[in-house]
Amino acid sequence: MTTSAELGLPALTVAPGGVATTTLTVRNDLDIVEAYTFEVVGDCAAWTTVEPARVSLYPGTSEAVTIRLAPPRSSATRAGEFPLGVRVLPVERPDLVTVPEATVTVTAFQELQAALAPRRRRGWLRGRYRASVRNLGNAPTAVTFTPGQAGEDLRFGVTPEKLRLEPGESGEVRVQARTRKLIWFGKPASWPFEVTVGPEERPESKDGKDGKDTKGTEARPETVPQAAAPVPQKPVLDGEFLQLPIFPRWLLVLLAALIALLLAWFALVRPAVRSSAKQAAEQAVVAQQSATPPPPAAVPTGDAPDVPANGATPGGQTKPGAGKPNTGPGSQGGPGGGPAVPGTGAQFSETIDVQTANGAAGTGSYPVPHGKVLDITDIVVANFQGDQGVVTITAGNKTITTIALETFRNQDYHWVTPIQVPEDQTVTANVTCEVPGTPASGKQAASCHELLNVSGTLSDIRR
After folding, report:
1. Is the peptide bond before 436 cis (omega within 30 degrees of 0)?
2. Whether this model's pTM surpasses 0.70
3. 95 to each of 3, 37, 86, 92, how far by Cα in Å?
4. Tens-place pLDDT, residues 138-150
5. For residues 75 and 136, what is the distance between their CA atoms, to the nearest angstrom?
6. Which conformational region is residue 255 in: left (phi greater than 0), alpha (psi within -120 to 50 degrees), or beta?
7. Cys bridge to 376: 191, 324, 342, 419, which one at CB 3.0-4.6 A?
């Protein structure tokens, strides 16, 4: 006496997300009433149930229970063939347990989840993107990426070209979109494109099946055709490359405005400025000539004809510009003599060195020799230590200028009309030292030290 149990189908095929059923017939060959419980064992136990889970049988009777297989549509449900066992356990006689078995084939399905990041790129020539994909199917899959653009204005590169992913595994590739030419000027151009993500295409066989040539093989018995698996949807990723011009529009507007300003400057402003400057210079020259007395008449020398004192020429006509001889102060004229002619003397340069103790006053001077006239055209004052105080420059009985020492290091003055210093008078630099400065050596000096360079011409007075 024993317990017998038999599955209705020795082999079953089920798709993830679907349901497959078969029956299990249990017969009580004992002479007692027996209750039976059922336990599914094997790889299919997680998603297989028995309904009802317990039956009671009189001796010599049997009953069929339903075996329900419902694998989830998940990458955790691997595709392939798996054994299915149902343990039939008698309650009263557990030693008479039996385990009928069958083979369950779980079909494969393909499902991909993909994304493109970033979706939009900006650049002059190319944009780089990252395409990520995850295998949500239950079988290993070789994934390919196929970029495309309707106008063929872009060229694409994918690195690596394909990925092999196990169920539940993720991967990433780099996608590069590159334009065929640059945009130098104008508006940005938008180039939308798509990246199709899907399993690698397998070459078709000569007989339309698994890539194997069946020519010459023996005929096989026909089997009942099964429903074709649904074609998996291929994710299509939308991307965009915004191509920027090398020179934006605002730069062109700015350049045009600058060119217009330059043209306006050269055509309108610059001539007006030059004309105003020229007019001002001419007015300054006229004003200076009006304020400056005319130079004394030249003294005849050598074999030049004698000129009367009243400026008349030998023909009795009065010479233009001739008049009475200059006998005022500074003319150095006198009975039997005349002043020096400006511009006819020798070049002259003299340096006056003034060193003054702290808190004291010092003077340096240059006396004009007897019988000479000094025409000063340039003066340079050097405060090379950076002293603090006051310097006053005089020529004869006239004060040329007074300067605060702390306001300069080197100061120069130039005159178109020379400053004339008569004979026996001096060019003097009076320095009042308040605080000695610090020369280039970095150590404060003990006294003030100024230099005055006087340049011009030194002429003889004709007696």
Report:
1. no
2. no
3. 10, 13, 16, 9
4. 999 999 999 998 8
5. 5
6. alpha
7. 419
DSSP letter at 321 equals T
Domains of the chain: 3-106 (2.60.40.10), 112-202+231-243 (2.60.40.2310), 346-460 (2.60.120)
Exposure of 413 by Cβ count < 10 A (0-12 exposed, 13-18 middle, 19+ buried)?
A: middle
Helix, coil or strand: residue 26: strand
For residue 106, CA distances in Å to 75, 233, 251 come to 12, 20, 65
Residue 270 pLDDT greater than 50, yes or no: yes
Cα angle vertex 151, ends 145, 155, to 5°?
45
405 secondary structure, DSSP code: G
pLDDT per position as a tens digit, 112-138? 999 999 999 999 999 999 999 999 999
Neighbouring CB atoms inside 10 A of 327's CB total: 12
Residue 340 C-beta-side C-alpha neighbours within 13 Å: 22
Half-sphere exposure of 62 (CA within 13 A, CB side): 12
d(CA 345, CA 351): 19
Give 175's DSSP letter: E
3-state secondary structure 95-152: HHCECCEEEEEECCCCCEEEEEECCEEEECCEEEEEEEEEECCCCCEEEEEEEECCCC
Stretch (H or E) spanning 2: none
